[in-house]
Amino acid sequence: MSTISRDEVAHLAGLARLAVSEEELNTFAGQLDVILDAVARVGEVAADDIPPTSHAVPVTNVFRTDEVRDGLSREQALAGAPATEENRFRVPRILNEEA
Amino acid sequence: MTSTTSGPEGSGPTELTGLTASELAAKIAAGEVSAVEVTRAHLDRLEALEPAVHAFLHVDREAALAAASRADEERADGTPPSPLAGVPLALKDVLTTTDMPTTCGSRMLEGWTPPYDSTVAARLRAAGVVILGKTNMDEFAMGSSTENSAFGPTRNPWDTDRVPGGSGGGSSAALAAFEAPLAIGTDTGGSIRQPAAVTGTVGVKPTYGGVSRYGLVAFSSSLDQAGPCGRTVLDTAMLHEVIAGHDPMDSTSVDAPVPKVTAAAREGATGDLRGVRVGVVREFGGEGYQQGVRDSFRAAVDTLTSLGAEVVEVSCPHFEYALGAYYLIAPSECSSNLARFDAMRYGLRVGDDGTRSTEEVMSLTREQGFGPEVKRRIMLGTYALSSGYYDAYYGQAQKVRTLITRDFEAAFAQVDVLVSPTTPTTAFRIGERVDDPMAMYLADLCTIPSNLAGNAAMSVPSGLSAEDGMPVGLQIMAPPMADDRLYRVGAAYEAARDAASEVPLLDRVPRLEVA
């Protein structure tokens, strides 16, 4: 079922925003292949009519009462930021065209 | 447990560090010793042993002594906030704390101090429990050896060439080294129970939803569960009652009374298990299990029988697919949860030199901030969730999860608790499995089903393996919200185990070289 190629690993890394090196691609391709072979055993179970479980306990949406409460202050929210500017998170450019 | 002799170099537990949490709590409550003295004794021992063990990532001596001093004042005022007031504890570094960094063992969060306390930390503080520091762990709780920590491995106090289990190896090692009498772990696939088993300590994964996940940095949200760790079943029960209970800040928190686990531990310690039905899981314990683990398990089952329990064999036919289902579900949830580490709002940022786009900075940061196991799981999860593979992998794994839950329901219709070995082997050597992910994953073979089904489970030490002298764990599993059964059976077994042995188990931990 598996046999995951180096190109597929590179594609996955791109999707997951991981800039993996050439050497890592080789290592991960081999390791992911072994892991996928092992986990693919779940396919041996006949489960066509079995409902999936996403959570061990029944989960229902939980609402709190609609009242004003203190949240984090601006200083607290920004305290761990790698870069800030004018009391905001500063991020690198998000568009590719020239500014 | 009695204290062991202390050598002139102080490498054995001292009079105070050798005591259990319940003994310390009683002495503090009676005014025989102050919380400050107890805390100082643990800090001194910890500082001497850490070069050999490396259980902690952060220790805050001043804050711990200040918390102990507050506990002493409250006792003097006649208002101790809980039965464990003044007792020190080691907190896994995956639970947020406002006064100490929370790194999850990752470069991604190196030096980050969260803006809010996890509910677990807040409840510990409110109970007067003294937090000594934050313990080492596999990065983002992914691993079974603590070797995946970005800050170096933790060593097993029983043999410092071996791993202390994982992901919560820092917490288990701190207990076994008598650096702390109590610890907190988190268990997604066995990260409380497997470290407990390989260090001769007690660890409990409560029922899913039994302890709040608020402030627990998420790895796999439908499986993650924080829980108590100790050197005795009673200590673990007392800690369980401090941290458990409904929390409106966690939408998956169970809104029901906390099981009476301390009372159950005390009842169990009387040693009578008549009327208790125990099921031995047929699928766990045969081929592939170390001989010493099999022998120890068989002896533990005989002990349960001698205490009056009715022991039968039970089959859980889908448990053999649990490992596969887990390594699809957990990486899938992980790939989603760890998307939050985007280098924008907190944590590491790499390569932001004005020439790179947000996406490039994100990718470089995640490349340098995450270790190999985290990357493997993110990619595995991304694969399992991608179109074309979803039904065969993630979808099928969710159906297997249903079948495993049904296996448990059928088993618990026949018996009160299930038992198995906690792990197939004793602690392996540092470096032995680090390049073989599947071999590492097998360490969680027996613990994973309880995460998938959300039921409660404990590991309690069942002695030492004959071939290597390393600790073995007995796993006890109970239905959801019947956590008290774990403590009753675990305490009964623990009392019988120590009565049958000349030296209590943890008094046999070797002395460590003091740096």
TrEMBL record, chain A:
Gene3D superfamilies: Glu-tRNAGln amidotransferase C subunit, N-terminal domain
InterPro entries: Asp/Glu-ADT_sf_sub_c, GatC
Domain of life from the UniProt record: Bacteria
Pfam family, one: GatC
Native species: Actinopolyspora xinjiangensis
E.C. number(s) listed in UniProt: 6.3.5.-
Protein name per UniProt: Aspartyl/glutamyl-tRNA(Asn/Gln) amidotransferase subunit C
Subunit structure and binding partners: Heterotrimer of A, B and C subunits.
Keywords, in A-Z order: ATP-binding, Ligase, Nucleotide-binding, Protein biosynthesis, Transferase
GO biological process, one term: translation
Catalytic reactions of this protein: L-glutamyl-tRNA(Gln) + L-glutamine + ATP + H2O = L-glutaminyl-tRNA(Gln) + L-glutamate + ADP + phosphate + H(+); L-aspartyl-tRNA(Asn) + L-glutamine + ATP + H2O = L-asparaginyl-tRNA(Asn) + L-glutamate + ADP + phosphate + 2 H(+)
Keyword Electron transport found: no
Gene name in the database record: gatC
Protein family according to the UniProt entry: Belongs to the GatC family.
Upper taxonomic lineage: Bacteria, Bacillati, Actinomycetota, Actinomycetes, Actinopolysporales
Cited function: Allows the formation of correctly charged Asn-tRNA(Asn) or Gln-tRNA(Gln) through the transamidation of misacylated Asp-tRNA(Asn) or Glu-tRNA(Gln) in organisms which lack either or both of asparaginyl-tRNA or glutaminyl-tRNA synthetases. The reaction takes place in the presence of glutamine and ATP through an activated phospho-Asp-tRNA(Asn) or phospho-Glu-tRNA(Gln).
Keyword Transferase included in the entry's annotation: yes
Molecular function via GO: asparaginyl-tRNA synthase (glutamine-hydrolyzing) activity; ATP binding; glutaminyl-tRNA synthase (glutamine-hydrolyzing) activity; transferase activity
Automatic annotation (TrEMBL), chain B:
Annotated spans, Disordered: 68-87
Residues at the active site: 92, 167, 191
Domain of life assignment: Bacteria
One Pfam family from the record: Amidase
E.C. number: 6.3.5.7
InterPro entries: Amidase, Amidase_CS, Amidase_dom, AS_sf, GatA
Protein keywords: ATP-binding, Ligase, Nucleotide-binding, Protein biosynthesis, Transferase
GO MF, any single term: ATP binding
GO terms for biological process, alphabetical: translation
EC class of the enzyme, as a word: ligase
Domain Amidase: 37-486
GO cellular component, one term: glutamyl-tRNA(Gln) amidotransferase complex
Catalyzed reactions: L-glutamyl-tRNA(Gln) + L-glutamine + ATP + H2O = L-glutaminyl-tRNA(Gln) + L-glutamate + ADP + phosphate + H(+)
Role of this protein: Allows the formation of correctly charged Gln-tRNA(Gln) through the transamidation of misacylated Glu-tRNA(Gln) in organisms which lack glutaminyl-tRNA synthetase. The reaction takes place in the presence of glutamine and ATP through an activated gamma-phospho-Glu-tRNA(Gln).
Family, as annotated: Belongs to the amidase family. GatA subfamily.
Subunit details: Heterotrimer of A, B and C subunits.
Name the record gives this protein: Glutamyl-tRNA(Gln) amidotransferase subunit A
Species assigned in the record: Actinopolyspora xinjiangensis
